[in-house]
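FAQ
Q: What does a multi-component entry look like?
A: The components come first, one per line:
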Amino acid sequence: MTRLALSLLTRLGLVLCVFMAAGCLSIEPPPDFVEREEYDWSSYAYRALNADAVVLGVREIHEDKEASLGFWTKAVKNRLQASHAYAILGEETLKVASGETATLIRMGREDAGVQYDYWVALVDAGSTLYVIEAGGRREHFSKVEGALRTSIKSFSH
Amino acid sequence: MRVPLTALALAGLTLVGCSGGPFAPSDSKARAEYEPSGGGSYEAEATPSEGADSGPLADRGRDLMEIDDQDEPVDMPKGAKKAPRAPSGTAVEPGRSSPLLIYTASLDVAVYQVQATQKKVISMAKAMGGFLARQDGQVVIIRVPALRFEAALDKIESYGDVIRRQIEAKDVTEEFRDQTIRLRNLEVVRARLETLLSKADKVKDALEVQRELARVTGQIELIKGRLRYMEDRIAYSTISVNFQPRPQNDVAGGAPPAFRLPFEWIQELGLQSLMDVR
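Then the predicted structure of the entire assembly, as tokens:
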């Protein structure tokens, strides 16, 4: 095997590793969002943000406990509403690009007089649960709400 | 025989049908002694059970006699629904058969935005024909027409998480009836005193009657005030809402959670984690 071939294989391996680490997920960020490189120890598989610090993120959860989307939705709402003082502003279902039905929970909260919006969309893909989050200060978040919804719909894995 | 006017005046004061009050009738004999000609209705009014048969309060009295006390202080847990019987009108209507209830509610509500929610509650009260009674810090007290009491509660509860809910329906039927009878009797006594005063031929007698007249008039005004107060409370229910801001510990920093599920990723959810992109 030539040195060149060895080098190509090494590079291909690296690309595959990166690809696998990202869980093959794909999401189209809103315009003017910059994708951020996540460290290995990050809880997020993907994050992107704009200049106003509105952040879009995706977590990839390999949960060995089998539970329905309804269970996870309730668990997330309970956690954020009861323990972390988020107000549930609404809940809706969306169809994502990979075909699953996602549950989008729209929340809000106030901190030191500043209002924030926070969305959590749950996509149940069998053994993997994808958690898509979006959040930021309300005055900035509201400007990109539509684009964020489009991004969530563009999600595939 | 000459009966001193002052003696008559004092005897007249005992005719007021008020149990336990300063003008309570001592016995039926006292009433009989002062029985004016054709004054059967006065006697009837002085005795509630008989007053139901004649006089201006007859119908109302009959209705009121049949009503049991219904003071209902109720502490209800979050989520519990109490459906108090709404009064049939926004004012006290003579002759009606329903009990006279004063509705009050006290709520502790945890909300996302205290000031904005307070404004919504005040606007809602005005839209329902009510008004803001008091606003002090996180507490808002509104008055709404009794007929809109339940609707107002439902609306307020939709604005946040109800932590505490207390509703009271105080039955003032008996007190209202007693005070009304007492008022009528005092007015009769006052009329008698005025007659006696006009006939007084001695200064001393006139002064004594005058003094009693002033006292009776004072009592009448007090009772009228009390009746007006009750009418107002019956017509407009009072809702006191204590708004509690939800604990603000997530964006700025963590706090001990109320409960934990065995899924670490759920514990990590929140803006703090998402927006930490350093």
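Q: Is there any commentary attached?
A: Sometimes. For this entry: Chain B touches chain A through 28 residues (CB under 8 Å).
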